[in-house]
């Protein structure tokens, strides 16, 4: 008999490291690749693995994500029994209130998890790009007979291990774990995808809550994972494919660059395991007679009359004749006027670059917020609106 699996996708974080990109939307709702959103990754993996019980934990800016979810239809999760269930902080129970972190959120959901009684609880964050065999993960976890299976990977190029949970292993077991350590021991990090045997996990949460109080649980990396590692009940499952956390502006930009080239590090349209998403009803991309496009991704509905190099354009983006967009990410509805130059920048929805204005350049990534009009040059690493002192 197929084991029963509950997948919980953590989609409630504020996403502050993405700066202006999460000012008006939930982090999992941030567009990616011109046609997708970050939440599509975990939901697609659930769909391909045949996992039919999927809970998505929301908290910050939930309305920005709700329309995209479409009741789970894009991932075949719009079911009469099971399917996609969106869970929010709520009042009216003994565990009411805002989630103070991932461990706290799980503790508040614990009675519902115990009631469902799955064989395996799969936990995944919604701020990384990857393809992963969730079905294989569940099988490996059950075969290991452990309380927790950590999916690990080597820290990606351009990142610091101190941003992540760092693990040490021996003989397939996790022997040490530190959450975002200042001085990491090694470069093996957790991908924020885990499989748990529910009872040991929930019992650990209850014990920690009794010790520190519900407001002290924070994220699972602070107490839960070290506790399970300390008991010898955690095993390692190495992820050998592409994995990139895109939870900061530089890593978000870098993830888009890795979609490009003759042999991209990651393809959104892999025929075997495509990333599924809500279909946008729009016309095809339009390339004007004066357009020059080199090694870029253009979403349906984009309109290009200028030059675009190594960039990713979302639907509704307009690049006028004489404008240049180079190594940049333009989110839906961005307009780059005649003679403007955008280089190594991320522009949020509806931003407008005035004629002859330059945004970004060699160096750090420039960032322009939603609906902002750039009327004077913004240097490399600049931000509009500028951060408050």
UniProtKB/TrEMBL annotation:
GO molecular function: glucose-1-phosphate adenylyltransferase activity
Enzyme class: transferase
TM spans (from-to): none
Highest rank taxon of the organism: Bacteria
Residue span, Glucose-1-phosphate adenylyltransferase/Bifunctional protein GlmU-like C-terminal hexapeptide domain: 288-360
Record GO biological process: glycogen biosynthetic process
Start and end residues of each Nucleotidyl transferase domain: 7-259
Signal peptide as annotated in the record: none
EC number(s) on file: 2.7.7.27
Keyword Transferase set for record: yes
Keyword vocabulary terms for this entry: Glycogen biosynthesis, Nucleotidyltransferase, Transferase
Family note: Belongs to the bacterial/plant glucose-1-phosphate adenylyltransferase family.
Protein name as annotated: Glucose-1-phosphate adenylyltransferase
Organism: uncultured Acidimicrobiales bacterium
